[in-house]
DNA sequence: GGGCTGACTGACG
DNA sequence: ACGTCAGCCAGCC
């Protein structure tokens, strides 16, 4: 058994951990998933604080901005995020992720 | 309790 | 299409 996540951070990590390979969610969608309708910014903040120890289990690269944009300050860098996504077969429309194809809804 | 901050967003010019 | 501005949220000091 695992104690249910309390703070926003843990709830965010929980949701992100559940994003399937090859799919992506926007900060806004994650926020809504954790019960914070307009907490997109807070979600980004939570991911920026992602502990090194969780980098393995939490696929942070599957979280993108609205419209499929890649945040300039994401993780090790937008290039890394892009590379990881492409490695999963995620298609891009220019600089943006093709949400119509890989967007996750919930 | 008040103010600051940031991997966000939507509206404008 | 692009930079700026102003709301929005929760954790930290």
Molecular shape:
globular
Strand content: 5-15%
Number of helices: 5
Rg, alpha carbons? 13 Å
Secondary structure class reads mainly alpha
Biggest sheet record: 2 strands, parallel
Q: What is the average per-residue confidence, as pLDDT, rounded to a whole number?
A: 93
The beta-strand count equals 4
Provide structural commentary:
The structure is a single chain. By secondary structure, the protein is mainly alpha-helical. It is built from five helices and four strands. The protein has a two-stranded parallel ribbon with strand order 1-2. The protein has a two-stranded antiparallel sheet with strand order 3-4. Helix 1 (8-17) crosses helix 3 and helix 2 (27-33) crosses helix 3. The chain is globular. The model has no long low-confidence stretch (mean pLDDT 93). It binds a DNA duplex (13 and 13 nucleotides) through helix 2, helix 3 and strand 2.
